[in-house]
Amino acid sequence: MDFEPTYTPEQEEFRQEVRGWLAENVSPDIAHPPDSINITEEQYQLRRGLGRKLGEKGWLWATAPEEYGGGGLSLDHAVVIEEEVDSYGLTVPPYYDSGGRLGGASIMVWGTEEQKQTFLPPIFRGEVRTWQLLTEPEAGSDLANAKMSAERDGDDYVINGQKIYVGSSLGCDYMWTITCTDNEAPRHQNLGWFMIPATLPGITIQPMELLISGGESGAGSGVKNTVFFDNVRVPAFNLIGGENEGWKVATTHLELEHGTGGRIARNWLVDHLFEYCRENQRNGQPLTKDPDVRDKLIDIYVEAEIARLFNLRNYWMRHSKAEITYEGPQASYWRKMSGLRMSQSILDILGPSALTYDPQWGAADGHMEAHQRSAIVAIHPGGTADIQKLIMARRIGIGREVREQAGALA
Amino acid sequence: MDLALTEEQEMLKTAVRGFIQVEYPKETLLEMAAEEQPVTAEPWQRLVATGWLGIAIPQEYGGEGGSFTDAGVLFEELGRGPVPGPHLSSCVLAASAILEGGTEEQKQEWLPALARGERILVPAMTEANYSWAEEDVRLTARQNGGGLRLDGTKVYVFDAVSATHLLCTARSEETNEVGLVIVPVTANGVEIRSLPGFAWNLAEVKLNDVSVDQNSLAGSSFAGGWGALQRAIARTIPVMCAYQVGACQSVYEMSVGYSRTRIQFGRPIGRFQRVEDHIINLVNQLDAARWTTYETLWKLDSGKPAADSIHLAKAVGSAAYYQACNFAHEVHAGVGSVTEYGLTLHTTASRTLYHYLGDPQFHRRRLADALSL
């Protein structure tokens, strides 16, 4: 076993190259507000600019095939890039791009050659930002109940309906969305996925007021929105996987969204908290010297370590194409529930200073306050904690002789 | 990055699993549990004959010279039984202590014998004031002519009933240092009494003014004995954790199997989400134990600092085994408590291993120290 990427001298050179390049290309003006709702248009453009430059180098989607605008690089190269970008407190891509990540991977599996040539290069080069639009008012945990309709009309589909809890602040270029392509057909045989240009007439984006945007993906999204589609005409070419074939595409999308992709980034929350407790005093000694605080800090550390190892395992399984069953939703479930447990431990340690981002009285520059909110909201994105358990049970085959298979990944 | 086992390790795993299925079926394990004399049983002799138990002992001392991960693979399979000791206590912990703290002569004398199972050396560490701290070692050793006289009581000594020799922590009356002294169980004044109840192969060991010769002192000095034992414990914990991983895996498979075949209210009980939850909690504990353990084995094999990982793996692994058994009992209900079914073999083992070499809270606190909090 080897828990670290193995670096050849050539790859070590690559790390030096990435490090040097990032030093020149990551703007020192990029800020890291604890709540991503405070990322301004200017800040967003700094991140998009970095994304485009990474894309030109083939480093934005490093393992995606070169023929579709990816980097065509090895897993170990991708790890080097992610580690180096992570050292700036940024993710790859350095902005919310859920539709790029999940839509891109789904098109890799289910798109025609022409669709791959059309939709993938702009994503992999960082030229576009894409939202995923799944949830509807009546299709939350029960995604297959999606009712937003797509009706064929000549060379187009006409889309009508509503999505909710989706997207981010500051707009997008494309929307990757699931629709109902046949109101009469049975469940799971009535869906279709589209890649929709966000500029089409009839699309209205309405920001929501929420506790926080949540999300587990590291790159905060800012606001979430309701998106209305009013007779939006989309070329039939943009239908991915075929009419009424949307559920099979969903299995790929959901497989990744449920955590099968894995990740290797570190947990900045634990770093922030440890640093805060080392530097701040109570009763004349650092918080870390208080036995009760130490016990709670270790509770948090252990939770985070298990999450890190599940994510790392999944990252390796995905990239080594090992057979994966329940591991994706397991990592997601652990992140969600351990996040909640950690937030209680943090509240125990810090008291009400974890509840405000007031510059004078809030702990750790507001990072703890943001976590108190995001840990709650994180229960639902990408499937609720209970849905993750439900998928695990099917994949393990609890009470079932036949185990459900994981969705296809490229 | 590659989290898979090597081909050789996969082969070892398959071989050990096959061996245990043949030699340690449930019926045998139940009989052994009833008799409390695992080492006299025939399967033990055949296990010794495979040579596998020398996996943590260097080849120059008659062992297999395996890596930590190799040892982990072996013990994970033993844990599935759960195959009772004294494999871990004698062949890993005591052997590591001799390796860390013995003289060259002692290594030559003891390690091949331990690898071949000819002698069984069991560490006797804890006392009435149950603790894993040096200051709580009270058993006294005083110079007596050319030898040592030992006086005191060790309690909760794991695998003592199987021992031919005990490796006792003892405090020198002369220097107040804690060293390691080898005591034959046949020596005058040694009394070993198995502890009744839910304890798994735990015993009381009384040393009533026992005389041993000077060669019995590991490293021929009290100084350094405690440190050698601590290094040996650090080497042993990840292997023990692998044993717990295999044990959790077995408990998990038992529970998933039962969830499919037990019918109530007209359907397999696993179709009830309340029951699903127990198994999901179980597999989460199992995988938490597995990956904290594997990362620790890898760190040790690749020479990386591993102190924090060792404490993490023990804290997570022992709690996981304990919890896994609880969840399995929730799934199994009545049948789980029937001795003949076999789940209680694990439940019993899980409680004793929870404490062996330090309980989760002990290791969580050591982890805080290791992280320089």
Describe what you observe in this structure.
The complex is a heterodimer of chains A (410) and B (373). By secondary structure, chain A is of the alpha+beta class. Chain A folds into 3 domains: 9-95, Acyl-CoA dehydrogenase/oxidase, N-terminal domain (Butyryl-Coa Dehydrogenase, subunit A, domain 1), CATH 1.10.540.10; 130-244, Butyryl-CoA Dehydrogenase, subunit A, domain 2 (Beta Barrel), CATH 2.40.110.10; 261-396, Butyryl-CoA Dehydrogenase, subunit A, domain 3 (Up-down Bundle). Chain A is 42% helix and 14% strand. In chain A, strands 1-4-5-8 form a 4-stranded mixed β-sheet, covered by helices on one side. With 373 residues, chain B is of the alpha+beta class. Chain B folds into 3 domains: 7-115, Butyryl-Coa Dehydrogenase, subunit A, domain 1 (Orthogonal Bundle), CATH 1.10.540; 121-221, Butyryl-CoA Dehydrogenase, subunit A, domain 2, CATH 2.40.110; 227-370, Butyryl-CoA Dehydrogenase, subunit A, domain 3 (Up-down Bundle). Chain B is built from 11 helices and 9 strands. In chain B, strands 1, 2, 3, 4, 5, 6 and 7 form a 7-stranded mixed β-sheet that branches. Chain B has a two-stranded antiparallel sheet with strand order 8-9. Chain B starts with 6 loop residues before the first helix and ends with a helix. Chains A and B meet through helix 3, helix 7, helix 8, helix 9 and helix 11 of A and helix 7, strand 9, helix 8, helix 9 and helix 11 of B.
